[in-house]
Every structure is written in C-alpha cells, then in structure tokens.
Amino acid sequence: MPERTPVTNVIFDMGNVLMRFDGPYFSSCFTDTPEDATALNSALFGSPLWTLLDSGTISHETMARYARAHLPERLHPNLAACLEHWPERSDPIEPVNDLAIRLKGEGYGIYVLTNASTRVMEQLAHAPVMPFLDGYVVSAEERLMKPDPAIYRLLCDRFDLEPAECLFVDDNEDNCTGARVAGMHAYHFTGNVSELEACARLLG
Prior knowledge:
Layout: E1 9-12, H1 23-29, H2 34-43, H3 49-55, H4 60-69, H5 76-85, H6 94-105, E2 109-114, H7 121-124, E3 135-138, H8 139-142, H9 149-159, E4 166-170, H10 173-181, E5 185-188, H11 193-203
Parallel strand pairs: 1-2, 1-4, 2-3, 4-5
Helix pairs in contact: 1-2
Organism: Candidatus Olsenella pullistercoris
InterPro entries: HAD-like_sf (IPR036412), HAD-SF_hydro_IA (IPR006439), HAD_sf (IPR023214), PGP-like_dom2 (IPR023198)
Protein name: HAD family phosphatase
C-alpha cells in the first residue's frame, strides 16, 4: 500500500464555519416586527440575486435596487441600514477560530475559501483567525464559486499547495464534494468542533 500523504493545510469556509451568517437574524436587527424582518430577509439575503452578488456578476447597487423594488417604501431606510451594517452583526464562531489558531501554531497552513461578495473583509476582518491566515480566495473576486472544482484548484495554484495535503471545511456538503473532486480531503461541518479537530489530526 502506498504511504498516505499527510494533511498539512486546513482550508476553512467563512459563513457558518468561521463567522455566523444568518439572514433572518441580520434582518431582525434592523426592523421592529417579525413581519418586517421576514420581508427584508426575503428581499435581500433570501433573494436569488444574493448568489449573483457572491459570484461577482452583479454589483451591490444592483442588489440594493432589486431589494428596494421588493419592499414597501417605509422599509427602504431599514434596508439601507441593513446593507450598510449587517457585517457588523456577523459574529465569529469562537471555537472554530480557536482551533484554526491552534493548528496554525502547530505548523499547519491556514486558509479561507468562501463564496462571498467583494465586501468580504467587512466580515473577515473581525475574525480572530484573520491575522494568522496564510491566504484566502473569495468567489466574487475570482468570478468562480464553490462547488466548482476550479476555485479549489485556483487556491492551490495561487498558494502552491498540493490538494492531497489539504483538508477543506464547509457547512455545505455540495461544497465538500467539489473539494473532493479537486483532490482535497473534506469535512462537512455541522457544529461539532471536537469532531472537526479529531478529523484534522487523524489526517495530519
């Protein structure tokens, strides 16, 4: 049997792995009633155009115009406030950040690969792991999105990584499948940080 290549790099998704992403919660922060929060979320975070924003194919202004068109005028100020400030409500998932920082201290390469808009740094900048990252790739900046295997290969090419030496962590199983197609190991994160750590150490 050939010797297994050990994992020396861990690549984290951002939303709901390193940072919380919760459209209904964000919407509730900028509205006064559950009904208004539902309407705001449907027009913004729950809109099909949100994916286009993350893909880099529409601008933030286009997203705002679409959302305004799908909301009563009285909620336009709420929408504006939400668009401006929702990243501030995206809290770090501390145990995952702590794990990433520990792994970095043990010699692992630590990266982020995220489907996110060009405003990604408004979230990622207040992730505790940010100063420890070896690099990151953002879908909107590359015009590629997970689970397309091309975006995982792009990250490996950019940072001179061997896919077989990488563990990719995402809360979306389809994105994990894309990583496996690209030659990486993958872990579907559902909230169990101890299990994630055990997986990383087993492969390392």
